[in-house]
Amino acid sequence: xxxxxxxxxxxxxxxxxxxxxxxxxxxxxxxxxxxxxxxxxxxxxxxxxxxxxxxxxxxxxxxxxxxxxxxxxxxxxxxxxxxxxxxxxxxxxxxxxxxxxxxxxxxxxxxxxxxxxxxxxxxxxxxxxxxxxxxxxxxxxxxxxxxxxxxxxxxxxxxxxxxxxxxxxxxxxxxxxxxxxxxxxxxxxxxxxxxxxxxxxxxxxxxxxxxxxxxxxxxxxxxxxxxxxxxxxxxxxxxxxxxxxxxxxxxxxxxxxxxxxxxxxxxxxxxxxxxxxxxxxxxxxxxxxxxxxxxxxxxxxxxxxxxxxxx
Length: 311
Known about the structure:
The chain is of the alpha/beta class. The chain is 30% helix and 18% strand. The chain is built from 10 helices and 10 strands. The protein has helices spanning 15-18, 51-61, 65-79, 86-89, 104-112, 126-133, 149-158, 201-214, 246-260, 280-283; strands spanning 11-14, 117-120, 141-145, 167-170, 189-193, 220-228, 232-235, 240-243, 264-271, 290-299. The strands form 2 sheets. A 7-stranded mixed beta sheet has the order 4-3-2-5-6-10-9, with helices on both faces. Strands 1-7-8 form a 3-stranded mixed beta sheet. The protein is globular.
């Protein structure tokens, strides 16, 4: 069976049309030259370090208030060469993330009582640390990313290299031979933040099929990513990225159900980026239609999903 196609009448944008940071006369090659003269690199942490974030680092990582700013700047400077993305350049890794979602207390309870959790596209592994800080054991935690540099720096960011017992997996979610295959039908909770939007519609569909393979009845995905008031595919300096609206996100999961034989309840909403905790200067370079897409998706069936290799 062939992969499902994106919905018709989706506008496709070119990078030069939507990104005011692009210098059309520049010889810049994406992701090959370290640079800080881009809109998504904010030199100073400024007001992004909220009181609750200070408390988190003080209690979990034992970092004093008079030390935290220098510590975070040092970590971000080390990380930037390995991830020239807004999540690093704009300090997005400091946001409360899914911990402010209404579903989070139930997720935390499940992980505290033994549920397994996988953080996909984990970056520094900050979402797993918030669970650990709230009392969740880390032995049933997994995290994956394409490269290991950011999560290795994460051990220094959180000062828990000895205490964090999660298994970190360097893997490409599109590689059927990757170590993610070890997690087939083993994951109860998926944290999927700022990850799926990195890909085209077709690639997102492939990635979600892999997630379904790792799921089991009752599994839940919780996460957020960039969306648009009206769905668009954009050719960006990082990749061809598909930005969902509510309807296309639901449409994708309907297609997933048909192709995998599984059943999912989808809760999804577009929100203003300020609701995530972003500063106005962090998104004023983005298209006016840019929004956040928050979601919680729960598996309802009792069937074993068909594997990607058989589709």
